[in-house]
Amino acid sequence: MALKKKPVTGMKDILPKEMAIRNYVMNMIRETYGTFGFSAIETPCVEHIENLCSKQGGENEKLIFKIMKRGEKLKLDTAKTENDLTDSGLRYDLTVPLSRYYSNNANELPAPFKALQMGNVWRADRPQRGRFRQFMQCDIDILGEPTYLAEIELVLATTTLLGKLDFHNFTIRINDRRILKAMAQYSGFPAESFDTVFIILDKMDKIGIEGVAEELEKEGFAKESIDTYLGLFREITNDVEGVRYIKEKLSDVLEAGIAEDLETIINTVESVKTADFKMSFDPTLVRGMSYYTGPIFEISMDEFGGSVGGGGRYDEMIGKFTGNNTCACGFSIGFERIVMLLLERGYEIPTKNGKKAYLIEKNMPADKLLNILKQATEERSAGTQINISIMKKNKKFQKDQLAADGYTEYVEFFNRD
User: What are the binding residues for L-histidine?
Assistant: First the structure.
């Protein structure tokens, strides 16, 4: 059997230039989120299959890389279903593992607990631009904070990070799952059909409001309900006035305080933000995960043409493990997409003292080489990045390669010096 050079479909090799960007972004994440009080944690990449298949991960539960039982536990001859063969799987996100982690370690953690988690996740998805089967996720979560302070801190921390990475004019779209349900209830849709309605609504940006109407009709919903429902979206504006409209229009079905809290989140973030972005109330925002219980948000960037991050409140997930609900809210940036956009725009990592290359003539005597290494040590101690290599015959090509890697200064050393 011939060996294969290319990685498995949906996976990728990471070359040095991209790895340098990734490391820089990860360091910036730790530094920035650290100033907001988030503590780094780590969870295993393998999770119990019961946790992964708990009907909290939406469509992602169909994309699990399952792991077969091992040793005597694996009984192929008596297995009747797939569940008889598997007992664990690769995590498809970081939220389910975090909930297990918190439920297992809560007594040793502060309250509220602000967690930062970065790590690879795996989904047996169809690969496409900016989407792989193995990819890095970066989550920040606040556990044990019931007020909108959690949402405000998460949005400010995430947008501050994006601003430091030189992203501008992006949009934080925000909605609330309870507003979604209230709009559907007000329009007369049966409660058991809400998920179907939301799945169709989630296509609004692709098929438009008329397309949503057609799909709702195909599902057999009453025309009166469809007209009432879509009429709401035609009236709502994407700002706090839209939130106030919802509050007034849905006063009989929307729980008191929800609209007011959403307005406070929007106004507060807009007042204290440090990055160049806007907050937008988007009543069509659904977020696919079934575990969201309150405010939800996404980051939209025109240069990507879609979402590069999202999150929301999930106050009931930890209770699945402990029996007692714990307030929880999280925000995840699309790490892979952020790195891809930085690479596509030719982003240069800021350096204090630059990158310098030492090119040494072949067969340099040991005593002279020692002096060169001492000089390099001094410059490295001062913060300069020094790359030492032997001169090639084609020095121009060698310098071009170094230049492509960000080296702007060269020092050549010859035997005769």
Answer: 93-95, 123, 137, 141, 287, 291-292
Three state DSSP letters for the chain: CCCCCCCCCCCCCCCHHHHHHHHHHHHHHHHHHHHCCCEEECCCCEEEHHHHCCCCCHHHHHHCCEEECCHHHCCCCCCCCHHHCEEEEECCCCHHHHHHHHHHHHHHCCCCEEEEEEEEEECCCCCECCECCEEEEEEEEEECCCCCHHHHHHHHHHHHHHHHCCCCCEEEEEEEHHHHHHHHHHCCCCHHHHHHHHHHHCCHHHHHHHHHHHHHHHCCCCHHHHHHHHHHHHHCCCCHHHHHHHHHHCCCCCCCCHHHHHHHHHHHHHHHCCCCEEEEECCCCCCCCCCCCCEEEEEEECCCCEEEEEEEECCCHHHHHHCCCCCEEEEEECHHHHHHHHHHCCCCCCCCCCEEEEEECCCCCHHHHHHHHHHHHHHHHCCCEEEEEECCCCHHHHHHHHHHCCCCEEEEECCCC
Could you tell me the sign of the dihedral formed by the alpha carbons of 281, 287, 290, 292, in that order? Answer: negative
Determine the pLDDT at residue 72. Answer: 67
User: Residues forming the annotated binding site?
Assistant: 93-95, 123, 137, 141, 287, 291-292
Single pTM value for the model: 0.88
Token pair 């008889």: residue: 84
Report the mean per-residue pLDDT for the chain: 90
Give the tokens for residue 122.
């795996």
pLDDT in tens, 132-174: 899 999 999 999 999 999 999 999 999 999 999 999 989 999 9
Map out the domains of the chain with their CATH numbers: 14-343 (3.30.930.10), 353-411 (no CATH)
Residues 54-97: tens digit of each pLDDT: 776 666 778 899 988 776 666 666 666 677 678 899 999 999 99
For residue range 15-25, list pLDDT tens digits in order: 988 999 999 99
